[in-house]
Design a protein that fits this description.
- The chain has seven helices and 13 strands.
- Strand 8 and strand 9 form a beta hairpin.
- The termini are far apart.
- The mean pLDDT is 95.
- This is 2-oxo-hepta-3-ene-1,7-dioic acid hydratase.
Length: 260
């Protein structure tokens, strides 16, 4: 593990990198003793700084939900990050590509809770019962450190979360089979990726249950009204200036976002 002073220095460096749009050396290189518990502590220091600057915490994102990504990161479980209100944009938004280092997009479902969820021992049915609605979402992921990265670098860097685009049709979780929501992702009119939501841990609500149980271990819980990204069911697609993205979720509608 690293010291509290080193955690604060690492968080400050990430915050500055985000402001400058200039990646820093991997924290795992700067702090060879960095562990996962340190990485989450650094992430929380970053979140506290965002709140102190006027942002509002509105939810969480879950990453590494596919077995392939876990194996690539030498992990046996997902990871998670925070979402603030200034990270959430609506369908049809135009984003400044220069705001990011190497932005990529992932196709996801967002769960919005209608009731609190307290772990441990949460299951899929607990999540569905507590969910007010599910809505299509695109996550913009980005790096604030150089690559290649260890899992501790990714977690400290807010699990690579940069922004989330929300749109399409709002549905109640019992009105559709949430496991079998399919989507295609097009870049400048060409379909680059497609997938089905069951690719997220067998059921996207399983990721939400995992997060609730994980937070319970540190004395926290999922709160009513929170926006929760359940994990990608496609590979990430890179974006550059003059890129138009369209995600088609069939009966759940579509989302569009452009990068200038």
């Amino acid at each position: 593990m690293i010291t509290e002073a080193e955690r604060r220095a690492a968080a400050a460096a990430l915050i500055q990198a985000d402001r400058d749009r200039r990646p820093i050396t991997q924290l795992s290189h700067t702090y060879p003793d960095l562990e996962i518990v340190d990485a989450y502590a650094i992430q929380q220091l970053w979140a506290a700084e965002r709140v102190a600057a006027g942002a509002r915490l509105v939810g969480h994102k879950i990453g590494l939900t596919s077995r392939a990504m876990q194996m690539a990161s030498q992990m046996t479980e997902p990871d998670y990050g925070f979402l603030t209100d200034d990270m959430v944009v609506g369908d049809g938004a135009t984003l400044d590509a220069s705001r990011y280092f190497k932005p990529r997009l992932e196709v996801e479902l967002a769960f919005v809770l209608g009731a609190d969820l307290h772990g441990p021992n949460l299951r899929v049915h607990d999540v569905l019962r507590a969910t007010e609605y599910v809505v299509p979402a695109l996550e913009v992921i980005d790096y604030r450190t150089e690559v290649p990265r260890s899992i501790t670098d990714t977690i400290a860097d807010n699990a690579a979360a940069a922004a989330v685009v929300v749109g399409g049709r709002v549905v109640r979780p019992m009105d559709v089979d949430v496991r079998w929501v399919a989507a295609t992702l097009s870049k400048n009119g060409v379909i680059e990726e497609s997938g089905v939501s069951a690719a997220v841990m067998g059921h996207p609500a399983a990721g939400i249950a995992w997060l609730g149980n994980k937070l319970a271990a540190v004395g926290e819980h999922l709160k009513a009204g929170q926006l929760l990204l359940s994990g990608s069911f496609t590979r990430p697609v890179s974006v550059e200036p003059n890129t138009v993205i369209h995600a088609d979720y069939g009966p759940l509608g579509s989302i569009g976002v452009a990068f200038r």
